[in-house]
Specification:
Layout (H helix, E strand, L loop, with lengths): L1 E7 L7 E7 L6 E11 L1 H8 L8 E2 L4 E8 L11 E4 L9 H4 L24 E3 L2 E5 L9 E5 L3 E4 L5 H4 L5 H12 L7 E5 L5 H11 L3 E5 L3 H9 L4 E3 L2 H11 L5 E6 L6 H8 L2 E9 L15 H6 L3 E4 L7 H13 L9 E5 L4 H9 L5 E5 L3
Parallel strand pairs: 4-8, 11-12, 11-14, 12-13, 14-15, 15-16, 17-18
Antiparallel strand pairs: 1-2, 1-4, 2-7, 3-5, 3-9, 3-18, 5-6, 6-10, 7-8
Helix pairs in contact: 4-5
């Protein structure tokens, strides 16, 4: 079938609207009609580089939609089901899934190319096969996914905010709760309060943190962070480090979550200054260029104060466990989702959406495929 999607043809390019061919689902594959897609900074990273991947590629990895058809052997979903398209597949049987770390599932090996685990390329452009970013390609109206990338959700849940469950909400929430190990009474600093950082604030609230310091140079984002539970908000990490020590009688933060749009060595070093004894620095942010050195820390301080550096992919969440749980929290009024969506965009407004994101005017932009 034919569909419309946004494609990057190479590094430094712009998202280009094209007509794509989408294949029929084979064994273990699912054809999804996308309804919404979140505009994540990772899709901007893809514009700068795609290490281990290839161009052209269909953008978008944070999506929700409705299953149109399934291939032989598919059991997790059926036609008509509403799904969140997880950007990290989970087979359920590999070493990582079996040990509760499905965010590291072996099937994720091809997320940079977008080739499905079956070896299928989900799209064709001008006769050439191509993949969808993170095996999702949510910037296309229709996409072919692996069954392992589909999370069925209740049909009465809104698909627009459900799309954020594909990445930003669990990534931020889990960075504070799981990767950071926030405990009741802790002091938490969240550096960068866009779509991921705002949810790290919410995670810290749920984990029982006493002090939550939101750090962002943009006043709008600081104010939003306070509206979802931050107890303090400052413009820079220097101010955050001073405040964390003041709040803890000289110690510093128990957990620091680095959730800026694009990380760099100096930013990591400044974030680490907020840590107190035994504190954990959670590296959630990514660099535009994957090979860049983004960690520059003073080793003696790490040793003497027993600081812990923890990477966080998808917030160390388990998609099939945590997405339904977080949606339940939202339905119970215990997790803010609606206000995370600042603006909505049509497919031909995609570049404007990313411009608004870069200007700090959105918490999350949302691509609307159809009303």
């Amino acid at each position: 079938m034919e569909t419309t999607g946004a494609v990057l043809r190479g590094e430094g390019g712009r998202y280009e609207l094209v007509t794509l061919e989408v294949g029929d689902p084979g064994p273990g594959e699912v054809l999804v009609e996308m309804a919404y897609a979140g505009l994540c900074h990772s899709d901007e990273h893809l514009r700068h580089s795609n290490a281990g991947g290839k161009y052209p590629i269909v953008g978008g990895h944070e999506g929700s939609g409705v299953v149109l058809a399934v291939g032989p052997g598919v059991r997790r979903v059926a036609p008509g089901d509403h799904v969140v398209a997880s950007f990290l597949p989970a087979c359920g049987t590999c070493r990582w899934c079996a040990s509760g770390r499905s965010n590291l599932c072996d099937l994720g090996a091809t997320i940079a190319t977008g080739q499905l685990p079956t070896g299928t390329w989900p799209f064709r452009l001008d006769g050439e096969p191509l993949g969808g970013f993170c095996m999702v390609g949510a910037f296309a109206r229709h996409s072919l996914l692996s069954e392992a990338s589909c999370i069925r959700i209740d049909p009465w849940l809104p698909l627009d905010t459900a799309a954020l469950m594909a990445c930003s909400v669990p990534t931020g929430w889990g960075s504070a709760v799981y990767a950071g190990g926030t405990r009741p009474g802790d002091t938490v600093v969240v550096v960068g309060c866009g779509g991921v950082g705002a949810n790290a604030v919410q995670g810290a609230v749920h984990a029982g943190a006493s002090n939550i310091v939101a750090v962002d140079p943009v006043a709008f984002r600081r104010e939003f962070a306070e509206s979802v539970g931050a107890t303090h908000a400052v413009e820079d990490t220097r101010s955050a480090a001073m405040l964390a020590r003041e709040l803890t009688r000289g110690n510093g933060a128990d957990v620091v979550v680095l959730a800026v749009g694009a990380t760099a060595a100096e930013g990591t070093r400044q974030a680490a200054r907020c840590l107190g004894k035994g504190g954990t620095l959670v590296l959630t942010a990514l660099a535009d260029i994957g090979s860049d050195v983004t960690v520059s820390l003073q080793g003696n301080g790490l040793t003497v104060y027993e600081h812990r550096i923890q990477g966080a992919l998808f917030g160390s969440c388990n998609a099939h466990r945590d997405v339904p749980m977080l949606l339940r929290l939202a339905s119970e009024g215990k997790l803010e989702l609606d206000r995370l969506v600042t603006r909505r965009y049509a497919l031909d407004q995609l570049e404007q959406g990313f411009a608004d994101q870069a200007a700090g005017e959105t918490i999350r932009g949302l691509l609307v495929h159809a009303d």
